[in-house]
Amino acid sequence: METKEAAEIRHLMNDVLTKNGEGARLKDMLTRLLVESGWKDEVNLMCRKVIQERGVDNITTDDIVNAVTPNARASVPAEVKKALLEKIRAALIKELEDREKENGTQ
């Protein structure tokens, strides 16, 4: 069960990421980094392998997603995760600083 503090932090994060299109910019950055790193091509190959193993007539999109997702998530390059985390952290810090200035508590 999520604590009240964790729920507040999650709410703040959602606010920050939707404010001024920050979430969309982060999504675009993530997509670009994943393509540049070759991750997208790697996942594409994983999907093709699953389809070949099970047969195109014997598999659904959900089957492919369920088979590939764990390996796809695990194979996201560390530098991509780090870059995204840094951008999220910077956006949250900026938002907290802005709120402190608005409230005159700095």
From TrEMBL:
Q: Name one GO biological process term.
A: protein transport
Any one GO cellular component localisation term in the record? nucleoplasm
Q: What is the lineage of its organism?
A: Eukaryota, Metazoa, Ecdysozoa, Arthropoda, Hexapoda
Going by the UniProt record, its keywords in alphabetical order are: Activator, Chromatin regulator, mRNA transport, Nucleus, Protein transport, Transcription, Transcription regulation, Translocation, Transport
Any Pfam family:
EnY2
Per the UniProt record, the source organism is: Orchesella cincta (Springtail)
Q: Which residues form the signal peptide?
A: none
Its predominant location is nucleus
List, alphabetically, the InterPro entries matched.
TF_ENY2, TF_EnY2_sf
User: Where in the cell?
Assistant: Nucleus, Nucleoplasm
| Entry's family note | Belongs to the ENY2 family.
What protein name applies here?
Transcription and mRNA export factor ENY2
Q: What are the GO MF terms of this UniProt record?
A: transcription coactivator activity
PANTHER family the UniProt entry points to: ENHANCER OF YELLOW 2 TRANSCRIPTION FACTOR
Q: What does this gene product do?
A: Involved in mRNA export coupled transcription activation by association with both the TREX-2 and the SAGA complexes. The transcription regulatory histone acetylation (HAT) complex SAGA is a multiprotein complex that activates transcription by remodeling chromatin and mediating histone acetylation and deubiquitination. Within the SAGA complex, participates to a subcomplex that specifically deubiquitinates histones. The SAGA complex is recruited to specific gene promoters by activators, where it is required for transcription.
Summarize subunit and interaction data from the UniProt record for this chain: Component of the nuclear pore complex (NPC)-associated TREX-2 complex (transcription and export complex 2). Component of the SAGA transcription coactivator-HAT complex. Within the SAGA complex, participates to a subcomplex of SAGA called the DUB module (deubiquitination module).
